[in-house]
Amino acid sequence: MKKINDKMQCVLDFVEDYLNDNGFPPSVREICSAIGIKSTASCQYYLKKLEQRGDIKRGPENKKRSISLTDNKKTEKFLSVPLIGTVTAGVPIFAYENLEGYYPLPTEFGNSDDDLFMLKVKGESMIDAGIYNDDKIIIQKTDYAENGDIVVAFFDDGATVKRFFRKNDKIILHPENSSMSDIILDDVKILGKVKGLVRKF
Amino acid sequence: MKKINDKMQCVLDFVEDYLNDNGFPPSVREICSAIGIKSTASCQYYLKKLEQRGDIKRGPENKKRSISLTDNKKTEKFLSVPLIGTVTAGVPIFAYENLEGYYPLPTEFGNSDDDLFMLKVKGESMIDAGIYNDDKIIIQKTDYAENGDIVVAFFDDGATVKRFFRKNDKIILHPENSSMSDIILDDVKILGKVKGLVRKF
DNA sequence: GCAAAAATCAAACGTTTGTTTGCAATTTTG
DNA sequence: CAAAATTGCAAACAAACGTTTGATTTTTGC
């Protein structure tokens, strides 16, 4: 009884697809007509087996459309991190206008998506640290940085990615690019630390 | 009519939670008792408003439990790509033992997860191309490559990442690292092309 | 080839559930 | 304050749906 056969797979596939397409589960009769069986009893028959195998779960008796996928079928946990478009002076970073969408990330980057965001890198100022133009960097919100951290800081009316140092009461924003020079400031607004990046070739 | 008020928010929250907990949507009456209203008509009233605002979607008339969240609420679509641990000679790459888990990726890397996999990079042979040790690279399965592609090839009993060239009937696997030299072969088994990477600092 | 098991069906039944209607209470607005 | 809009209720209807039963067909194992 542990084996899965064609029809069972059909039912399972259909339920998955239907859920993906509609956001709610199919009814028994919808499954019937989808996989080409004429009796709802046959469908029940398969559903019972799929439940026994642990592929699906069914709600309490008589609840309409109460089929759900079990965890081993459900997509694994992941983070959904806001991808910020442009950073402009004045407008708060996380204003809706700046939001380009949400980006899925594995949980290894954090436990909650609350303190993470992403930013598209413009420029070559960090190429020696392996951060290239158009990379999407993953940033953990914080206003504090330690020496050597790669940070996103507010500078010159926009966000900039640099390596951070504090020396003799001055802040040094160091570009990892031998053709560029350090930015030295009295104070700086730090948006977060760079925790990772995603690149598309 | 564009504003959301407490009760509407309650309904919306409940629907979201219910969907998360059960995998299928609540019925109108369940919403009623959850948020403490006694008439199903009142619930319809809120559901209609939420639908007008675009927060939820409702299925065709009379379909039971056909509430779904709209895309701005739904977790966006994403890919679930297998992350391969070690590549060993003999064992098929996609053997279960080699599978370290699944990794979420945005859909910009492909439409289906079928032809993608990921690999953890070991070594420094591609640092000049911005691929570092311990990076996770995203690979599209293919056995054909064009000049200049960064490929994953089977070489020396394992997978190696190199830039690919074909010249005078020879295959050149070129490491992007000035301290390493080209590998020249008569033939090579290509596993795929590198499409992107994910790095964790 | 035959008996047992598995798969499928049609039909009917009772529940759950979406929908509607009409009216009352409350809040907002001019 | 009166009119209008909003919010709420109870009740009843009809549609969609899950479930069950018992029979029929198909497959399987010997």
Write a structural description.
The structure is a homodimer of 201-residue chains. With 201 residues, chain A is α+β, with helices and mostly antiparallel strands. Chain A is built from three helices and eleven strands. Chain A has helices spanning 6-22, 28-35, 40-53; strands at 56-58, 67-69, 79-84, 99-105, 116-120, 136-141, 150-155, 158-167, 170-174, 183-185, 189-200. In chain A, the strands form two sheets. Chain A has a nine-stranded mixed sheet, with no helix packed on it. In chain A, helix 2 crosses helix 3 (40-53). The model of chain A has no long low-confidence stretch (mean pLDDT 84).
List the helices and strands and how they pair.
Two copies of one chain form a homodimer.
Chain A: H1 6-22, H2 28-35, H3 40-53, E1 56-58, E2 67-69, E3 79-84, E4 99-105, E5 116-120, E6 136-141, E7 150-155, E8 158-167, E9 170-174, E10 183-185, E11 189-200
Parallel strand pairs in A: 3-5
Antiparallel strand pairs in A: 1-2, 3-4, 5-6, 6-11, 7-8, 7-11, 8-9, 9-10
Helix pairs in contact in A: 1-3, 2-3
Chain B binds a DNA duplex (30 and 30 nucleotides) through residues 7, 27-29, 37-42, 44-46, 61-66.
Q: How many H/I helices of chain A?
A: 3
Radius of gyration of chain A: 26 Å
Question: What distance separates the N and C termini of chain A?
Answer: 47 Å
Chain pair sharing the greatest interface: A-B, 40 and 39 residues
- Work out the helicity level of chain A: 10-25%
Order of helices and strands of chain A: HHHEEEEEEEEEEE
Largest beta-sheet details of chain A? 9 strands, mixed
Strands of chain A, total number? 11
Structural class of chain A: alpha+beta
What general form of chain A does the structure show? rod-shaped
The residue-averaged pLDDT of chain A reads 84
Strand order of the largest sheet of chain A: 4-3-5-6-11-7-8-9-10
The proportion of residues in beta strands of chain A is: 25-35%
Q: Runs of chain A with pLDDT <50, length 5+? A: none
Report the oligomer: homodimer
